[in-house]
Amino acid sequence: MNDDAVLQAPLFLAIDEEASRALLRTMARIDLPRGRALFHEGDPGDRLYVISSGTVKLGRRAPDGRENLLSVLGPGEMFGELSLFDPGPRTATATAVNDTLLYELSHDELIAWIAEHPPVAIHLLQALAHRLRRTNEALADLVFADVPGRVAKALLDLSTRFGEPVEDGLRVAHGLTQEELAQLVGASRETVNKALADFTTRGWVRREGRAVVLLDVERLERRAR
Ligand code: CMP
Question: What secondary structure letter does DSSP report for 12?
């Protein structure tokens, strides 16, 4: 169990550890095996989730079956709160990318928690604002940036969640297939693959199955701009 990661979630920031752990004890634990969906876009929803370990992808499907990933979340991140703050159905499908452990809180319990600890509201707003900023950026990139630029940015973004320093760089064990990476970038698998092959030839990255080692972060940052 990775309670320390969970306690980094916006829900617990600014709250003393004893109260945080007391809330955590009331939250149900959910084991979500790799590939399993927790809920689907359009479902009614009355609970939110905090990731303790593992990875969750949030995706939407077009009427013609194509999929797009809005985000890939890791330990300490939260999802499922939009249908509370903006009542309505789930805005995305949540699926485990690898075996994932989650904690669950009902929207009613969240409201009670915020009433008891008002500073929590600020942290939740910060998390939402941060998400909006990233979404705006992704939208602008879809219009203005080329695919290699978007791939570089996606790798850097994934490295902030899943990156671990290794001898020759930053190893990002994102767990995504090539298809999922393409869905995250919003391009075809072939084009994303070509960009990755080019980065590899240039010595900026090394591919290792469902992980990638960032060997030259500075160049990637420049390419992402
Ligand atoms: P909800 O709509 O209840 O269920 C799907 C969840 O995906 C949603 O709450 C958010 O927590 C999350 N989500 C939706 N859109 C985005 C986005 N653009 N970036 C990150 N997370 C999102």
Answer: T
